[in-house]
Amino acid sequence: MPDEADKLDLPSWNGLDLRWLVREGQAGETHAYGDKMITAASQVELPLDVLSGSNAEALVEPDSDDLLWDRASSAPGKFYAWVAGETGAVSRIRTAFVKERGIDRRLANLMGYWKLGRERE
Question: Which residues contact 30 (CB under 8 A, 6 or more apart)?
């Protein structure tokens, strides 16, 4: 989110790990769209049972003009990832989760619903 003031007061429950990532840092420090999401995704602690069966061979990278929209299946387990944002950032997180960290892609909803620099049609 652009600024700390954009944070919403949302309900919480046991097992939910919701993190607000603010682009505006201290002393006017600004991060590019998705940079903090990508860093957080690559550093998040994952349950061991998530890492056992990567489905990376079925991972198809979207064309540069396409939006990314991968939907989780009903795979059992305690882990579920929901990632939404700028398509380039979500695509990098998808690669980090599935190819680099070995997360079964059926455990994540990945939604790149807008592209930086592209006007809405």
Answer: 23, 24
Give, as one character, the DSSP assignment of residue 98: I
Residues constituting the chain? 121
Q: Alpha helix (H) ranges present in 18-95? A: 35-43, 87-95
> Model confidence over 30-82: pLDDT tens digits?
667 788 888 888 888 887 777 655 444 445 555 555 666 677 775 566 678 88
> At how many degrees (to 10) do helices 87-95 and 35-43 cross?
20
Instruction: Give 85's strand partners.
Output: 112
| Beta carbons within 8 Å of 23's beta carbon, 6+ residues apart | 1, 2, 3, 30, 31, 32, 33, 35, 36
